[in-house]
């Protein structure tokens, strides 16, 4: 337990409070009997105070991003009325890939408790968008679509839940549709990823590609740490693949 509280307490910032903190507290209480504020480091409490005084904070802690992922993933997984083992396995595999086995095991302990609690997506997203920059929120959405597709089929209820989450996170329809298209193989998906239509001119295609490269460049997530850059690179690769597909189709 000492290593668990050290991992959690040393990194939590804005997610220590609010609805995310409540979900984490419920999960912790389900297997360790609660987490005392005395278990948290002085450094973490000082960070929490700074975040609480700055509603426009833009430097998201790695663990804050991790906890936000856990809570939103639980909401999406339960949206179709069941908890699918393939989706649970996907979350675990993704976390092992990002954080290593020990940290992922700690996170998954929390996750199994979080999925048992009813959580307001709107309240959680309000907390996230107040404290997390736009690029990080886009990365959250990308991860959620990956979870939804983990069982080989994206249910309509999952799509609707992710759409609501996107709206709550102030992610506009074009960005939402672009990320959604990254998980579909339809012929028009390449255009949707670049946020254009098939009627766009070659010059408009080039302009859209440059815009998307700037928006989704992994450098925008450097503050989240190396562990989150894999997902950012996957998203960036989708942009490049879409552009290559369009260029091949048009012979440009």
TrEMBL record:
* InterPro entries recorded: DjlA_DnaK_co-chaperone, DjlA_N, DnaJ_domain, J_dom_sf, TerB-like
What top-level branch of life does the organism fall under?
A: Bacteria
Q: Which residues form the J domain?
A: 189-251
What's the name of the protein?
DnaJ-domain-containing protein 1
